[in-house]
Specification:
With about 425 residues, the chain is of the alpha+beta class. The protein has helices at about 15-20, 30-50, 55-75, 90-100, 105-120, 125-150, 170-195, 205, 210-230, 235-260, 270-290, 300-310, 310-330, 350-365, 395-410, and strands at about 290-300, 335-340, 340-350, 370-375, 375-380, 380-390, 420. The protein has a 5-stranded mixed sheet, with helices on both faces. A two-stranded antiparallel ribbon has the order 4-5. The termini are far apart.
Length: about 425
């Protein structure tokens, strides 16, 4: 789940003060109900399994050893930092063995230990996100643990709970199936929360993409492998820990590189990264002779939103506009935040007619977007300037200047509209007089 921080706002009344102290209260009511419900179910499950679980020293030692590996993994990668926004880690390499080898109670407790450590040692973020993340992982791990222990106890499937330590193929297949249950349920719980927070967000944005599926497969393979090794001999964790730490560092390094190109408030390309990609597209368009369009989109009267409702709501408006842009554009369109309330879009292969259609569609969709704030729904409009390559400019600087002039004209004409630059017609060619005979 996202772990980015919230900007501070100046309290204007008691409601704003309360929201600033408890950010959960500033979320949409359905989201608050859903998050509180997940936490309540998790607490009830812990209480229920605590009374039904018999304490065994061997289980406690195994749990402590796996948590120690998780702590070592976090501490070994802490200095790298964690990228803003949604980040992935490989801590399920330790959660999954807990779910597979120990009673379900330990699967509920393991993510609490890790989330407390992450909050304390890595990054302090809003508390409700840590709580809900721990609850979602705990419930997913509990479900996987219950399913696995029930199946391995069936004699017609495997020959008892110790079959995993003997490397029986049936037990390993059941462990993989339980790991898949864990991944599916955890993803579903977080996806529902993300979609409840922003109902306009398509499900494909909150579920898996190709990279997420690959990371999930890696996590499942690591978790099952560590579980098998732990079931054989607890000392084998010493051998399993270094590869997991190395993979974790590599994953965080890649995420940090991606974060360096991303605007933290919107998730779009930042200005520098957008310019690099736009330059690449322009060079390609010159080489192939294709057309190309550039849009500059500006939120109208955005300062009023910040002044009336605070910067937290303003950031939510920026994120909402960014989501609308991302979902309404093609995968290969280059979209970024240019600064403040301005966004830039490069449309490879688009001519003037198509560019105007796209800009009008974006303007219309954004005008129907609403952000909840203090029992009110905030709506905004945008103005946009459109420039076409080889018509209004031949390089990025010329296209940006032309689109910016068109945007300024749109604002002069009353905002909430699309404009294109006025192209001066070429001077008439005066035929030369024939030479005198």
């Amino acid at each position: 789940m996202a772990a980015s921080g919230h900007p501070s706002i100046t309290p204007r009344d008691s409601v704003s003060t309360l929201v600033s102290r408890w950010p959960l209260l500033g979320q949409r009511r359905p989201l608050v109900v859903y998050l509180v419900g997940i936490a309540a179910v998790d607490i009830a499950a812990i209480a229920g399994f605590a009374t039904a679980t018999e304490f065994r020293l061997a289980d406690a030692v195994t749990f402590a050893a796996l948590m120690a590996c998780g702590v070592a993994c976090v501490e070994a990668t802490r200095r790298l930092g964690v990228p803003a926004g949604v980040s992935r880690d490989l801590l399920s390499a330790w959660w999954l063995p807990v779910a597979l080898l120990l009673p379900p109670l330990y699967a509920l407790l393991a993510p609490i230990v890790m989330q407390v450590l992450l909050q304390w040692r890595v990054r302090a973020t809003v508390l409700h996100r840590r709580v809900v993340t721990a609850a979602a992982i705990g419930l997913a791990g509990c479900a996987a643990s219950v399913a696995f222990h029930w199946l391995v106890s069936e004699p017609w499937l495997v020959s008892g709970p110790s079959a995993l330590s003997r490397g029986e193929s049936g037990a390993i297949a059941l462990a993989v199936a339980a790991a898949v249950v864990f991944a599916l349920l955890n993803t579903a719980l977080i996806a529902v929360a993300a979609h409840t927070a922003d109902p306009e967000l398509p499900w494909r944005e909150v579920l898996w993409d190709r990279e997420s599926v690959l990371l999930d497969v890696v996590e499942l393979c690591l978790g099952v492998s560590v579980a098998v090794a732990t079931s054989l001999n607890l000392a084998l964790l010493i051998i399993a820990l270094p590869p997991v730490v190395l993979l974790q560092r590599s994953l965080l390094h890649a995420q940090l590189q991606a974060a360096a190109r991303t605007d933290p408030k919107t998730g779009l390309l930042n200005a520098a990264a957008w310019q690099r990609e736009a330059d690449t597209e322009i060079v390609r368009a010159r080489r192939t002779g294709e057309t190309l369009a550039l849009l500059i989109i500006d939120i109208d009267h955005f300062k009023r939103v910040n002044d009336r409702h605070g910067h937290l709501v303003g950031d939510q408006v920026l994120a909402g506009v960014a989501t609308t842009l991302r979902t309404q554009l093609r995968d290969y369109d280059v979209v970024g935040r240019f600064g403040g309330e301005e966004f830039v879009v490069l449309l490879p292969g688009a001519d003037l007619h198509e560019a105007r259609q796209v800009a009008e569609r974006l303007r219309n969709r954004i005008s129907h977007m609403a952000v909840a704030a203090d029992d009110a729904m905030i709506t905004v409009t945008v103005s946009a300037g459109v420039a076409i390559m080889s018509v209004h400019g031949d390089d990025l600087i010329e296209l940006l200047a032309a689109a910016d002039l068109a945007l300024y004209r749109a604002k002069e004409l009353g905002r909430d509209r699309i404009c294109i630059p006025a192209v001066q017609p070429p001077p008439p060619q005066i035929p030369e007089a024939p030479p005198a005979a």
